[in-house]
Each structure stands twice: as structure tokens, then as C-alpha cells.
Design a protein that fits this description.
Length: 176
């Protein structure tokens, strides 16, 4: 099996970074959820804090890597303009727009990915900042911890929808 450079970058963008994002989210969410004063000992708090920092930092870094590789490496190939009378299957955006039954994948799907997809790394970075700023105090502040869980979950939701749309768009018109 042979993969072109574009296909390799698409795999790195979607599958590698996407899988790491899911793992980091699961770990970060579990740590945030259980980082409560009534469940922690003094020595346990420091150990759990290290895992919490690792999970939130990893999620933020992977979210940025995913968005940046998508925006600056994969997306230009998707958006390339075909020369006259070219095979449109080699130009995903043009192919989708040329087919009325597939046009929605560009007009809705890529618009989501282009704009709302940036919400995930921004929110994940905000959560990471608050975790690093408040550290062990988060165990005692349930309101702040719950707010971080909501932000963390919104970051995941934005990325999950973008990832699902990306998979569907790639199925309809892959970057080759």
C-alpha cells in the first residue's frame, strides 16, 4: 500500500492527533472530575495534580497541533483551484461544490472546521492555564472545577464535531 505525502499528512492531522486528543481529554476529564478535597490526601493531591496538568497540557498541545496542521498543511490542498478541464476528484473543494448532493459538505462541514474548530484549542488552553494558575486550590473550589469541566467538555465537543465532519468530508472527497 502506498500513501502520498498528502494522505500521510491527512492521517497525522486526523488520526494521530485526533487519537491523542481523545486520550488526553479522557485523562484530563477524569482527573478534573475526581480532583476534590474530600477524595484527596495531602500527598495524593500533588500526585493527582501532576496527572491533571499532564492531561490538560497534552490536550491543549494536541488541539493546537491538530488545528495548525489542518489549517496550514492539509487545508491548502483541499482548497486548491483546479486548472481548466481538470479531474475534479483531485481537487476536493471544487469536487464537492460541483456536485449538488455533496455541496453541503463544503458549505456547512468545512465552514465548521474552518471557524468553530479553532474553539477547541482556545478552550483547552484556557483550562490548562487555570489548572496551572490555581493548582491544588482547584480541589477546594468546586465551582471553578465544574466550570473547567464545562469548558473542557466544550473544547472536546467542538473538536469531536470537527473531526466527525472531517472524516465525512474525507470520505466524500479525500485529499490525494
Amino acid at each position: 500500500m502506498y500513501l502520498s505525502e498528502r494522505e500521510v499528512w491527512s492521517l497525522i492531522h486526523g488520526l494521530v492527533f485526533g487519537a491523542l486528543f481523545l486520550l488526553a481529554f479522557a485523562g484530563g476529564l477524569a482527573e478534573l472530575w475526581s480532583f476534590r478535597a474530600d477524595l484527596l490526601t495531602a500527598s495524593g493531591a500533588e500526585e493527582r495534580l501532576r496527572r491533571l496538568v499532564l492531561g490538560t497540557c497534552l490536550m491543549a498541545v494536541v488541539a493546537w497541533l491538530t488545528v495548525l496542521t489542518g489549517t496550514y498543511i492539509v487545508y491548502p490542498w483541499y482548497r486548491a483551484s483546479p486548472p481548466p478541464r481538470a479531474d475534479l476528484t483531485l481537487y476536493p473543494r471544487s469536487y464537492l461544490l460541483s456536485r449538488p448532493e455533496l455541496r453541503m459538505w463544503h458549505t456547512f462541514g468545512m465552514e465548521w472546521k474552518e471557524h468553530v474548530g479553532w474553539v477547541a484549542p482556545i478552550l483547552a488552553t484556557a483550562v490548562t492555564y487555570v489548572v496551572l494558575r490555581y493548582r491544588v486550590r482547584l480541589a477546594h473550589d468546586n465551582t471553578l472545577r465544574r466550570a473547567l469541566i464545562v469548558l473542557f467538555s466544550l473544547a472536546f465537543l467542538a473538536a469531536a464535531v470537527a473531526g466527525l465532519l472531517g472524516a465525512m468530508i474525507s470520505k466524500a472527497a479525500p485529499v490525494r
